[in-house]
Amino acid sequence: MRSILSAFLLLLAICATGVAQATRSEFMSLDEARPVLAKTGDLPSELKGDVSENDWDHWVRRQDKAIRERLEAGDEDTLTNLLRWGVSYTKEYRIDREYLAQYGKSTLVNSFAEHRADDLIRALASPATTNEGLIQERILLEKNGFAFKTAKDRAKLKEYLLKNLARMRDEMASFREKLPHSAENDESQLYAKRGISLDTNLWPDYALDRALRELVESGALKPASVRRVAIVGPGLDFANKENGNDFYPPQTIQPFAVIDSLLRLNLADAKELRVVTLDISPRVNLHLERAREQATAGKTYKVQLPWNSDVPFSEAYLAGFTRYWERLGDQIGSAAEPVAVPQTLAKDLHLRAVAIRPEITKMITSMDANIVFERVPVKDASEQFDLIIGTNIFIYYGRFEQMLARANVSAMLRPGGYLLTNNLLADEAPSHLTLAQTTKIVTREQPSIIERVYGYRRD
C-alpha cells in the first residue's frame, strides 16, 4: 500500500506542474473574441464599453481559473457516484435514481445511504486496499483536509458524503423539473452552474459511431479524409453517471472508441492518424500521458467495456448498441480477459475487455486546454483538425461561453471539417460553423427520449 500511495502522490505532484507537451494551447486574443463580444447582448460587466487587450487578458485568466475550480465540485460528484453505485467496498443496495429521489424521506433509503457511507469510509481508510480508484479518492480527500484516524474524523467525513448525496438529489430533482419545459438550446446549457465531472460511459461513443456512419453514407466524409482529430474532455471512467462500476481501475475510453470507429469506417489510415485530447483536468491529462509512456515501452492499454442491461432503453436501441459493443475494439486491439465481476452485478452487467495495441495509444497526445478560452495554435493547413469531438462537455457552459468555445473550435478546424457534439451550441455570433447534420437516436420509447449528435461543418 505504501508504494502505491507514494506513486500516486508523486503523480499528483507532477500534475500540479503540468504534463509535458510538444504544443501548448493559447488563450484567444481580444481581436479573436470581438465577433462574439459584438453579438452578445448580456456581456459580463467587465467586458462592456471600451475593453483593452489587458482588460481582456485579465478577465480571461480569472474566468479560466474559475472554470478549473469547478473540477473540485465535479470530484465531489464522482465521489457521490461512488457512494451511490460502488460494489467493491459494500454489499448494500445501490442508490439508483428512484432511491436517490427518496433519500431524506425514506427510512429504508436513509439506511442504505448510512451503511454505504460507513462501508466506503472503512474502505478508504484501509491500508490494505489496492483499488486504484479508492486510493485516488483518498488522496483527494486528504488533500482537502479530511482524515480517517479518529471517530471524529470519520464522522466529519460521513457528514460530508451524505451532504453531497443530498445535494445531488436536489440537483437531479431540479434538472427533472426543468427538462420537460426546456428548449434544445436551454437543455444544452443545463449544467452551466454545476461542477465539471470526469465520469463517463459508453453510450456517447455509440452515438458518435452512428453519426460518423451517417456522414460516410451521405458522402460528407470521404475515405481516408480524417488525419487529425481533437477530443475535448475525453473523460475518465471510474464511477460513471449511469450505473457506475468501481471494480476496475480508472480508464479513458472515448479516444480509443473514436479511433476504432474511424478505422472501421475507412475514414482514417492508422499510419497517419493523430489524436489530441484537450482537457482541463490534470488527472485526465496525466492518465493519458502515463498510457502513452507505457505504450512507448511496448505495453498494451487494457480497457474494460461494461454496460448494464437494467437501464430502461428500448429493445431497438439496445440491439443496435449491442452490435456496436460486440465489435468495439476489434480495429485497435484484441480480446482480453476482463476483470472479475462482483457477484451482486453478475445478473445485469455485460463486460468485455480489449488490450489496445501500443501503436494505437501512441497516436494520442494529451494537452491541457480550456476550450472556452483557449485554442491549439494552427500555423498552416497541415496542423488543422479534420474532426473535433466534444460529448457531454458544452452542457457545462452558458450561451456566452459556448459562443467563445465555438469560435475556438472553428479556428482549429480545416474548411470542410466537422465538430460532432451532443449539445446544440449557442449560435448568435458568427463562427464559420454551420449545423449540417443531426443524428437522432431514439433511446427510450415510452416516454420518448431522443439522443442527438449535431454535426457542425466548417465553412
Provide the spatial order of strands within the biggest beta sheet.
Answer: 7-3-2-9-10-12-11
Helix content: 40-55%
Tell me the total number of β-strands.
12
Instruction: Write down the overall mean pLDDT.
Output: 89
Note the beta-strand portion.
Answer: 15-25%
The unreliable regions are 1-22
First-residue to last-residue Cα separation: 54 Å
Q: What is the 3D form?
A: globular
What is the helix/strand order? HEHHHHHHHHEHEHEHEEHEEEHEEE
Radius of gyration: 22 Å
Number of distinct helices: 14
- The secondary-structure class comes to alpha/beta
Could you describe the largest sheet, including whether it forms a barrel?
7 strands, mixed
Describe the model.
- α1 packs across α6 and α1 crosses α11.
- α14 links the parallel β9 and β10.
- The termini are far apart.
- By secondary structure, this protein is an alpha/beta fold.
- It has 14 helices and twelve strands.
- Strands 7-3-2-9-10-12-11 form a seven-stranded mixed sheet, with helices on both faces.
- The chain is globular.
